[in-house]
Amino acid sequence: MSDPIQPAAFVSKEGHIILSNAICDALGWVPGTRLTIEYARGGLLLKQTFAFAPSAIDTLFGSLRHVGPALSVEDMHAAIVREAADRSDD
Fold first, then answer.
1. What is the pLDDT confidence band of residue 6, given thresholds at 50, 70 and 90?
2. Which of 2, 12, 14, 52 has its CA 20 to 30 Å from the CA of residue 68?
3. What whole-number distance in Å separates Cα of residue 8 and Cα of residue 77?
4. SS (H, E, C) the chain
5. Which residue has better confidence, 82 or 2?
6. β partners of residue 47
7. Where in the chain is the domain with CATH 2.10.260?
């Protein structure tokens, strides 16, 4: 972000912090984005919180187990097509 954003934020009667669309758009925050709040220099610092901590692929490798022989790319593609067709019927 190169230009500082100046739009105001407001606190609602319920205690919710309302941010302008300009702020949310600039940060890529959509409704439902989780934020952590930290006290910082007489104010607040908002940071986006992610559901999972960033991980390297090496720490995740093998975490999902498959029983049986390895599937070919064609078999995986066919399974995706079947699942997509099943879901489109709902």
1. low
2. 52
3. 49
4. CCCCCCCCCEECCCCCEECCHHHHHHHCCCCCCCEEEEEECCEEEEEECCCCCCCCHHHHCCCCCCCCCCCCHHHHHHHHHHHHHHHHCC
5. 82
6. 36
7. 10-48
User: In the chain, pLDDT over 90 holds for what percent of residues?
Assistant: 41
> What confidence category does residue 73 fall into, taking pLDDT thresholds of 50, 70 and 90?
very high
pTM given for the model: 0.48
What CATH code is assigned to 10-48? Answer: 2.10.260
Q: Look up residue 78 and give its two tokens.
A: 């066919």
Q: What is the length of the chain?
A: 90
